[in-house]
Design brief:
The chain has about 475 residues and is of the alpha/beta class. The chain has three domains: about 140 residues; about 170 residues, Rossmann fold, CATH 3.40.50; about 45 residues, no CATH class. It is built from 20 helices and twelve strands. The strands form three sheets. A five-stranded parallel β-sheet has the order 3-2-1-5-4. α8 crosses α9. The protein starts with a helix and ends with a strand.
């Protein structure tokens, strides 16, 4: 009997021990669950789909070129090409040799684990090519830039045979290497999925970006003004409006210093009259006032260092005293890690621009276009696309006394009545893809759930095709 009772006691304590372990595990999980978001929704860990099982046709290495947003679009394209060709994608390499000379790697800007895991049902992504395919073991991969604006036929018929032969292909340029239009719906939707779900900034960037956004929203609605009056843009475009003679010469020398900037001799006035120059800060001040923004408007300058510094911002700041930048909102210690990392700084501006109440770009570069696309995807947040060609005419007429202020303001408003972003299809221009609407500015295939989006986009906004 004693042996039996001893056995019962042992089982009893064993059950208690197991129960305690289970309770402790549950408690730990409850404690470590993410806190509630401000809207009351729990941030649960993402649930990823099972990995896709396929026979890989080879490894695709890519070296992205350009600034942050040009590289971002390229990453979306390269994932899509890897999926189309059944390839294994190597985590993209980022540009370190452009004007910005940012030494950041992919994992310094983007959440690499989330990127790999969230796309595992579409494409296999690895951090490096297996050793057997390295030069150390005598393997030579094929290196080439794919043809710009190419469709699936080009990649299937010309690139896939090369991969089957060489096993490793290195695309050394990735900007605009996939067509805007004419691709299957599933590939277009994959481009969007990468852009809006798979690409996340690192927790460090995300946390600081959210802090910035919260600080701005606490002070009320705000406009994100993407003021592209920066040295690199002015030198590249040849636009010297508002510059002194010695500044114009400095910009010209810089343009000649970069051999891959093809245009060298540029007449600034001609380019400006064609609407191909970013607005100056003074022009931006007049336009914002004409559009009805008042002195109490909170304006966030989403840009790098403005050429000419605070001197060049004087008129804009006089018209809008509540101008802020990340450098003025955050402590120096907050930004210390990001100094000399222009792409990481640009990521903060990107986050704030996407979250702003109104977004106004003064030039239609890569950041402006990708932010526009994100804002379309986020239920068409207010974005005003400026007609620079018409604006410089109106500004010049006002400044030379031909147009009184009321006439100028009415003209600016009239020009922009239909230039607030709304549902519409991309413009298709046969054989001139560079002149088409850019996919990432208006991914209309991803903005409604139905295959046929005519009702959502509106019959009057149907795709315009120009021969």
């Amino acid at each position: 009997m004693e042996v039996r009772s001893e056995g019962i006691r042992l089982r009893f304590w064993f059950v208690r021990l197991c129960s305690s372990i289970v309770l402790w595990i549950c408690l730990v999980q409850l404690v470590t669950l993410p806190k509630q978001h401000e809207n009351g929704v729990d941030h649960l860990p993402p649930v990823f789909l099972p990995p896709r099982n396929y026979t890989s046709n080879g490894f695709l290495r890519v070296s992205c070129n350009g600034g942050l947003n040009q590289m971002r679009a390229a990453i979306c394209d390269m994932v899509t090409i890897a999926r189309l060709l059944n390839l294994t994608l190597v985590v993209p390499e980022l540009d370190k040799t452009s004007f910005w000379a940012d030494p950041s790697n992919f994992e310094d800007i983007f959440d690499v684990k989330h990127f790999i895991d969230s796309l595992r049902d579409q494409v296999r992504i690895v951090k490096r090519v297996p050793k057997k395919f390295s030069s150390k073991y005598g393997h030579t991969s094929l290196e080439m830039p794919p043809v710009s604006w190419s469709n699936e036929k080009y990649y299937l018929e010309q690139i896939l045979p090369l991969l089957r032969k060489h096993k490793v292909l290195h695309f050394n340029k990735t900007d605009t290497r996939l067509a805007n239009n004419g691709l299957p719906l599933d590939l277009q939707k994959l481009r969007c999925r990468v852009n809006y779900q798979a690409i996340k900034f690192t927790p460090q960037i995300e946390n600081l970006g959210r802090r910035l956004i919260q600080m701005l929203h606490e002070k009320g609605p705000f406009v994100a003004l993407h003021l592209r009056y920066e040295m690199d843009m002015l030198a590249f475009s040849g636009c010297t409006q508002g510059c002194m003679e010695k500044e114009a010469e400095e910009l010209k020398r810089m343009r000649y210093a970069f051999p891959w900037w093809r245009e060298k001799e540029i007449v600034s006035d001609e380019r400006r009259s064609q609407g191909l120059c970013p607005l100056t800060p003074d022009e931006a001040a007049l336009v914002l006032q004409a559009l009805g923004f008042g002195r109490k408007t909170q304006i966030y300058i989403a840009a790098g260092e403005i050429y000419g510094g605070e001197r060049r911002l004087a008129q804009l700041r006089a018209a809008f005293p509540k101008i802020v930048k990340k450098e003025t909102l955050l402590d120096r210690d907050d930004l210390q890690y990001f100094q000399n990392h222009s792409s990481q700084m640009a990521a903060l501006d990107f986050m704030v621009s996407v979250a702003s109440n109104t977004f106004i770009p003064t030039y239609d570069g890569n950041m402006a276009r990708l932010v526009e696309g994100h804002r379309r995807y986020s239920n068409f947040r207010k974005t005003i696309l400026l007609d620079r060609k018409k604006l410089v005419e109106l500004v010049d007429m006002h400044q030379n006394g031909t147009l009184k202020w009321n006439e100028f303001a009415d003209g600016v408003k009239q020009v922009h009545e239909k230039r607030t972003v709304r549902p519409t299809r991309r413009t298709v221009i046969i054989d001139r893809p560079k002149e088409e609407d850019y996919f990432y500015a208006n991914p209309h295939e991803c903005l409604c759930e139905e295959t046929n989006c005519d009702e959502f986009l509106g019959h009057h906004n149907s795709s315009s095709q120009v021969a």
